[in-house]
Amino acid sequence: MTEAPDPARMIPDPTAGLEGVVAATTKLSHVDGENGILILRGKRIEDLAGKAPFETAVRHLWQDFDIAGGAALQAVFGQARIAAFAAVPLLEDAAPELSVFERMQLGLAALPLKGDLPDAVAIAGALPVFLAASHRIASGRVPVAPDNTLETATDLLRMLTGALPPDGHAAALNRYLVTILDHGLNASTFTARVIGSTQANLKQAVLGAMGALSGPLHGGAPGPVLDMIDAIGQPENAQAWIGEALARKERLMGFGHRIYRTRDPRADVLKAGLKLLGPDNPKVRLAEDIETAALAALKRAKPDRPLETNVEFYTAVLLDAIGIDRTLFTPLFATGRTPGWCAHVLEQRQTGKLIRPSSRYVGPQAG
Length: 367
Ligand code: ACO
Known about the structure:
Blueprint: E1 29-32, E2 37-40, E3 43-44, H1 54-61, H2 73-85, H3 88-93, H4 100-110, H5 119-138, H6 152-161, H7 167-179, H8 187-197, H9 202-213, H10 222-232, H11 238-247, H12 265-276, H13 282-301, H14 311-321, H15 329-351
Antiparallel strand pairs: 1-2, 2-3
Helix pairs in contact: 2-5, 4-5, 4-9, 5-6, 5-15, 6-7, 7-12, 7-15, 8-9, 8-15, 9-15, 10-14, 11-13, 12-14, 13-14
The structure holds acetyl coenzyme *A.
């Protein structure tokens, strides 16, 4: 038999989704699930998100790689947006039934990587353009060309709506994009590292990572979070609605995490961002009531499994509060995470080693 794994090196339960398995070393981020701490390249997430624009946080994360030399990231991301806009006609010609996410993948697949910009910059700079253009195309509007003098978050909102956003909205989007920049060896980052380990190019790694992110157990949860909040409608309905969902064995979107056994610190960073948007948003108050009811119900339903609020719950509330359509939540997640995926691919490539585990054969033996 060609695959004969050494039993001593076998993980105890290969069906457990690699839980607890260490599959890489990284300087990029550390998720301390017991204590609810997230560190990005030596800084706690609370000291980056809300404190600096997206570009500054990306520069911090990329500091060990020669990606953009000494150039200011705001300027090179601006250049990358302008270059990417040339691919937008292709998105306009695509089949109408394609989702925004799929159109972004199409634009990325068509993005030439032979220009003056480093690949990571060209890719990370292009996704906001593809996101905004795809959304406008889907709603029958003409795509808005990028303004390379603006920060990514401000220009992204401008390309979506056609007008410069209020400062508070740009600040909230910056906070969100920084919060989700990187997060250990989650499913999409692992996917990116596996693809990168084959020496495939950065574009292929990001396309694959986007595929992993699209599922509801990973990056696809915040849209359904908002659907849940809308379906509950009033705080007094929360307990019954949640009880019935759990009785049907449904998962409450925005709760639970593979690593965190306490509150996901990103949930609080985003919740703090909501407070800065101004008081008295009734949907925010409703969300807080639903969160309280959900946590109590999960504790009763799964007393042995700590299930706390994850990043996706307040992602949904924050992005909704700044007027982002729920169909854009996963596309935005991909946009913010892309510099993280790129950094992981570059770090993985430094090992020079192909990721290729073995499998345990449990099928019938050959005659
Ligand atoms: N609601 C209800 N029950 C839950 C939830 C939830 N949100 N999350 C886990 N559980 C239950 C499971 O049903 C399971 O119960 P069982 O043992 O009786 O079958 C138990 O808790 C353990 O669940 P697993 O799926 O084994 O735990 P895992 O660590 O693999 O799951 C995950 C993590 C996928 C995030 C899960 O908590 C979930 O599905 N949450 C909802 C989706 C979500 O919010 N995803 C976004 C995650 S954050 C991110 O990826 C950016």
